[in-house]
Amino acid sequence: MTEMIDILKKGPVVPVIVIDNLEDAVPLASALVEGGLEVLEVTLRTPVAIDAVKAMKAALPDAIIGTGTVTNMKTLHQSLEAGADFMVSPGATNSLLRDAVSEGALLLPGAATPSEAMHLLEEGFVCQKFFPAEAAGGVAMLKSIAGPLPQITFCPTGGISNTNAANYLALSNVACVGGTWMLDKNLIKQKDWSAITELARQAKQIVS
Ligand SMILES: O=C(O)C(=O)C[C@H](O)[C@H](O)COP(=O)(O)O
Description:
Order of helices and strands: HEHEHEHEHEEHEHEHEHH
Strand order of the largest sheet: 5-4-3-2-1-9
CATH topology: TIM Barrel
Bound molecules: 2-keto 3 deoxy 6 phospho gluconate
Low-confidence stretches: none
Shape: globular
Number of helices: 10
Strand content: 15-25%
Mean pLDDT: 97
Helix content: 40-55%
Largest sheet: 6 strands, parallel
Number of strands: 9
């Protein structure tokens, strides 16, 4: 069975996608995969998001497609029905954590403090999203958490870009980073998919 850690390591840069137009879903995902980013997160913030996940899964069977903004059981179940490979939450509630476990869903719950991280650990979640990364203390905060809680692996997200991604990825407790910096809104509007592939390639280069 695939574990959350395997997905994070495969990233290790995860585009956090917001799909406004369903027709953009497959070309955008294909452009990112072509640029070397094969783990994608589609946020459930728009009405077409679930259909976008289904379309991406059908068109790109080898890509790992997850859902983001999974904040409750309803969106967790919608994600599972759509065939999402993993689910990401900006935070966590007890009911969401326990539902994920009982459904066998691969959930990456969010934490921003040592207490939140310890609570997730207690519920069995060793992989966590560190959100909002830059606002919550960034690299210095994660480095401090690695001292007492080295068993947690994080995917920091929020305020990450080409300029600071490498600093996060160099930390012992970081397996991947998430972000929107390679998803230039104007390029998506213009449907300039080759330019998106180039941005994905640049993002991938940070880690290679
Ligand atoms: O939708 C969610 O579930 C989130 O947690 C929010 C995302 O992680 C941020 O939108 C990342 O955005 P940037 O700071 O632009 O990289």
